[in-house]
TrEMBL record:
It is found in: Cell envelope. InterPro entries: Peptide/Ni-bd, SBP_5, SBP_5_dom. It holds the Pfam family SBP_bac_5. Transmembrane segments: none annotated. The lineage of its organism: Bacteria, Bacillati, Actinomycetota, Actinomycetes, Kitasatosporales. It comes from the Bacteria. Residues 77-441 form the Solute-binding protein family domain. This is Peptide-binding protein. Keywords: Signal, Transport. Belongs to the bacterial solute-binding protein 5 family. Residues 1-21 form the signal peptide. GO terms for molecular function: peptide transmembrane transporter activity. Its main location: other.
């Protein structure tokens, strides 16, 4: 029988999941006798080296590498993991100290000391990979170590979000003996200090995780092994779930498959339906002569019908979004709706004609074929239809697989392109800071000096994040006024699982990254 629980509880203030309890008794009293738990996802890693990844690769990293601080189940702020304690040592929030647990080791037996922590952070900045996370360390001046266990992060400005940065899988601790200081590791191997070892890895196919007996941290593993299988699309993934070739799906369920599961078309499955903070948005590249015109950008913002995209393409499994900061986070606004209202072609035409633009505007919209789910192509076809039906635009659609897509937008090749964003940490800062500045996560410089030089620095001085709402509201209004970024929708979290799998209600951290160690098979119902 298909089970579905609509009673959601709060998880880490922003992500909620609730699993279903069934009835009956399983015949096998030993959960591990059925082998590893197999998780399916459409989000394959782009790299195995943390210095090169600011993307969905983090989902694997969280389980095989370790960070100084992370999120135990139920935590909304970072707690010590590889560290035994961490705290700011000064009232200005410019020096952050972490004391490591003693006698830490990597999975290969090499010692994990303060030197390894400093090495890991320094190499991120030294390599400065185009798709890497160096941008997250913008407030870091230098790393100092004292002895084998003490690490001091000296910041060049107050930054109360720095512990959140350290909690991201981007700051995974690597072994100096195995990872070059100024280049990426490319042998396909990993020796981290996380809850699992990476036993084997086939790019784009599977990652085999087994228990790391040398791990020291807060994770209490409920299983001995997990295999992650990577799928190209939702249909094949759901077929594997129904055939019991996998036990659980995470990321990538298509709207149609979600609706089918909700409609009781699957037996012996359960659906986890929870709030999410992932967003989808368009980026306008100022290198393109048309995308550089603010009138063009605002006309697009005036025409785009988010509700139609959510309903027609995603079957209401996502919600329209009118700000880069999603609902559920302190500081969220509805700035694009407040300024533009409902889609209105007449208003869009006036915006263009007032700027002296009377001909159809030619724009090329790019999207990736294999990162954000099976509906991406349909979403962009819907955008093309909406914009062309206005009579104001001529739209060309182009696409690439993620690996080459990333290279293209980093080189500034795309006039307008689609991106998705899963939060690095659950704070409004992380939905603004990564997209602005001369160097940002989008490869398109966006100075926004009022945001980067005044509003964000002011907000980072405050440890009480509820006290910085005004700064975030003003920053969002600047984003609306510039219309360089156009938010489209906010996602939800859907996880489908066999009815003998438990732990899903504990498995998502505040960034909605799955902590595989929380999953286990039920021994009784």
């Amino acid at each position: 029988m298909f089970n579905r629980n609509r009673c959601l509880r709060k998880l880490a203030a922003i992500a909620s999941v609730s699993l279903v309890a069934g009835c009956g008794v399983l015949s096998d009293s030993n959960p591990d006798s059925k082998g590893p738990i197999v998780v399916g996802t459409t989000s394959a890693p782009s790299t195995l080296d943390p210095a090169a990844a600011w993307d969905g690769s983090w989902e694997l990293f969280r389980n095989i590498y370790q960070t100084l601080v992370a999120y135990p189940n139920g935590a909304t702020t970072p707690q010590p993991d590889a560290a035994k304690s961490c705290a700011f040592t000064d009232s200005s929030n410019r020096t952050y100290h972490c004391a490591l647990r003693p006698d830490m080791e990597f999975a290969d037996g090499h010692p994990l000391t303060a030197e390894a922590v400093k090495y890991s952070i320094d190499r991120i900045r030294a390599i400065d990979a185009p798709s890497g996370p160096a941008g997250l360390l913008g407030s870091l001046d230098r790393v100092e170590i004292r002895g084998d266990l003490d690490v001091f992060f000296h910041l060049d400005q107050p930054d109360t979000t720095f512990p959140f940065v350290l909690a991201t899988p981007a700051m995974s601790i690597v072994d100096p003996r195995d990872y070059p200081a100024e280049s990426l590791r490319e042998d396909g191997k990993v020796f981290g200090s996380g809850p699992y070892e990476l036993r084997s890895y086939e790019e784009g196919k599977r990652a085999v995780l087994v228990r790391n007996d040398r791990y020291q941290g807060f994770a209490e593993r409920q299983n001995e092994a997990v295999t992650i299988r990577y799928f190209q699309g939702s249909a094949a993934m759901v077929e594997a779930l129904r055939a019991k070739d996998i036990d659980l799906t995470y990321r990538g369920l298509a709207a149609g498959d979600i609706i089918a599961l909700q409609g009781h078309e699957a037996k012996d499955l359960q659906l986890v339906d929870g709030a999410g903070t992932d967003i989808s948005y368009l980026v306008f590249n100022p290198k393109d002569p048309w995308a550089d015109k603010i009138a063009v950008r605002k006309a697009v913002a005036q025409v785009v019908d988010r509700a139609a995209i959510a309903h027609k393409v995603y079957k209401d499994t996502v919600d329209p979004l009118y700000s880069m900061v999603p609902k559920g986070l302190t500081g969220h606004t509805t700035g694009f709706f407040d300024d533009f209202g409902e889609p209105d072609v007449a208003k869009a035409r006036r915006i263009l004609t007032d700027a002296g633009i009377t001909e159809r505007v030619p724009l090329t919209l790019w999207y990736t074929t294999d990162r954000y789910g099976s509906e991406t192509a349909r979403e962009f076809r819907e955008l093309k239809t909406q914009l062309e039906n206005s009579g104001l635009f001529t739209i060309t659609l182009k696409s690439r697989p993620w690996k080459t897509y990333v290279v293209g937008y980093q080189k500034g090749e795309y006039p307008v392109f689609g991106r998705g964003w899963f939060p690095d940490f659950p704070d409004a800062d992380n939905f603004i800071a990564p997209f602005v500045g001369e160097q940002n996560a989008l490869g398109t410089p966006y100075p926004a000096s009022r945001i980067t030089k005044e509003l964000l620095p002011a907000s980072r001085r405050q440890s009480d994040r509820a006290a910085v709402v005004k700064q975030f509201e003003e920053a969002q209004q600047i984003l609306v006024d510039d219309a360089r970024l156009l938010p489209l929708w906010q996602g939800r979290q859907y996880v489908a699982a066999s009815d003998d799998i438990s732990g899903g209600e504990r498995a998502l951290d505040p960034s909605t990254i799955m902590m595989m160690w929380e999953l286990h098979r039920k021994t009784s119902w």
